[in-house]
Amino acid sequence: MKSNEKAVILCVDDEVVILNSLKKQLKNAFGDTYGYEIAESADEAMEIIEEMNEDKKTILLIVSDWLMPGMKGDEFLIHVHQKFPYIITIMLTGQADEEAIQRAMEQANLYCCLYKPLNTEKLIKTIQSSLVNYE
């Protein structure tokens, strides 16, 4: 990673309102320390991840919703973990079943699952603690 390149936090959710809110909250909490990317689907997120990987940019952490059209969050995070095991994964859910959460923990090294409606403070603290462990 070049010194001027910021590691990126990627947020994935099919609801644009939530994505924009997440991005704003992360920027408020972490400022210019990281770059922020958003994706409205698992497919779009995979494209971003592949692109950034080709450009030798580091994705540090992914915050992904569980219930999305196409690919569910647990499947997506497992897929990401198989290719990029160093990326920290956090899943958000309003209604994930316990099996999906368990699967993500076992197969995607899920750091944490947070429940919607999202508590911003809890999300920020979770991200901070995951990054402390990362370094």
Please provide a written account of the structure.
This protein is of the alpha/beta class. 47% of the residues lie in helices and 20% in strands. Helix 1 (16-30) links the parallel strand 1 and strand 2 (35-39). The longest helix is centred in the N-terminal third of the chain and has 15 residues, at 16-30.
Tell me the count of domains.
1
Question: What string gives the helices and strands in order?
Answer: EHEHEHEHEH
Q: Structural class of the secondary structure composition?
A: alpha/beta
How many helix segments?
5
Q: Count every beta strand, where a strand is a DSSP E run of 2 or more residues.
A: 5
CATH class: Alpha Beta
> CATH architecture, please?
3-Layer(aba) Sandwich
- Chain-averaged pLDDT: 93
Q: Judging from the principal axes of the Cα atoms, what is the shape? A: globular
Give me the CATH fold name: Rossmann fold
Radius of gyration: 14 Å
**Main pleated sheet:** 5 strands, parallel
Summarize the model shown.
The protein has 135 residues and is α/β, with parallel strands linked by helices. The chain contains five helices and five strands; from the N terminus they run βαβαβαβαβα.
